[in-house]
Write a structure and sequence with these properties.
Helices cover 45% and strands 23% of the residues. By secondary structure, the chain is α+β, with helices and mostly antiparallel strands. The chain has helices spanning 3-11, 19-28, 63-67, 84-88, 110-119, 121-151, and strands at 30-34, 39-41, 49-55, 58-61, 73-76, 81-82, 96-99, 103-109. A four-stranded antiparallel β-sheet has the order 1-8-3-6. It has a four-stranded antiparallel β-sheet with strand order 2-7-4-5.
Length: 155
Amino acid sequence: MSTGIEALRKSGLFDACDDALLEQVLEKARERTYAAGDLVYAEMSESDELYLVVEGRLRHTSALLDAAGVDYDMPVEPGDVSNVVRFLAEGPSYISCVADTDSKVLVWDAQEAVGFWDQHPEIGYRVVTAIAKQLHQRLQQMNQIILDRVSWGLE
């Protein structure tokens, strides 16, 4: 099994795919490598790409939140995806993504992915459901950061 297929399986986004379908998913992806410290995408930039970490680690940061006194620093490990909000909606990203270590990622363009999902709606449904779960987890993490930040004065 290729490293790309292993990463797809680890992500949980493509649980409904057999190896033949995963190969088709990989054909739609572009592979990119980043050296530690490289910017993957910048806060307030527009991108409709979805990033899946294959090797290494990325890190989400936010200058806007840091300026507001909220320390936002979230790792993106192998099997995790990045830029999911921007992938699903229009507008700027409110976080930056930087390679924390030398990293290899798979990248999909939103329109290409949607075209693939149209051909395989059972996969599209499961991918969007998995993305929604990841968004929910990240929202919970953000809520905890905010709660930790303000709760000290509430006791």
